[in-house]
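Incident review: delayed structure delivery

Summary: a single-chain prediction request sat in the queue longer than the usual turnaround. Root cause was a stuck worker, restarted by the on-call engineer. No data loss occurred. The affected request and its eventual output are reproduced below so the record is complete for anyone auditing the incident later.

Affected input:
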Amino acid sequence: MDIRKDNLVNTGLYGAAALGAIVGEVRGWHGLVYVCKPMMMIILSSWFFFNSRRMGDRFTLLIQAGLFFSLIGDAALMFDHLDQFYFIIGLGAFLIAQLCYTMAFVQNVADAGSNPGLLIALFLAALVVTYGVIFGIGLVERVDDLMFVPVIIYAVAITFMGVGAALRFGRTYLPSFLMVFAGALLFIASDSILATHRFVRVVDHATWSVLLTYAVAQYLIACGCLRHVLDPAERERREALGT
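Output delivered after worker restart:
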């Protein structure tokens, strides 16, 4: 058994790292956060890489890049309590991660061709956009001048990521779609809680709920994308194309 590829082992390690990071955040144990939070993306990225490297193409590379920049964002946000500058760095890293995920989803949509479930996909995408617009309008009134532009750009980027995940409906293995779309929604939820807590009002559960929703979101996105890559139909398509 190759533990680098084992689903159970890596899920357990990822869960343990996420739990450690959450406990560290709640208790204010920064040392535990400094160890556990980066380990989350390191474990997830390693697991995704070793399971998908033989199927490597633009889709897998973009997901891997998204995980990498998420790691950079996590590292920056660990020091957010020291200086707001780290928050801006983290925001920028996560912005790139969102763009990588979005491009991967668009690549999936483009590769799949026609889609009999297009109306459902468009309906789900419209729901994501509606939420993004409503939440964004409420947020811009509370954000200071320094953070206004970065926050708006990030809000647009993560909304596009949700739209990209929605448009995968009918173009991939159904479990892959469900996991990735649920992950995208949880990512949006995590950032919504964080933005509300930071710019609008104190959210009592933010110390643990932001990280919990984020951890589950990243796991579902990585797992769902891996299911797409390893789907027998997708593998046959790649072989037919000689990739």
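Verification: Residues 239-243 have pLDDT under 50 and may be disordered.
Action items: add queue-age alerting; document worker restart procedure.
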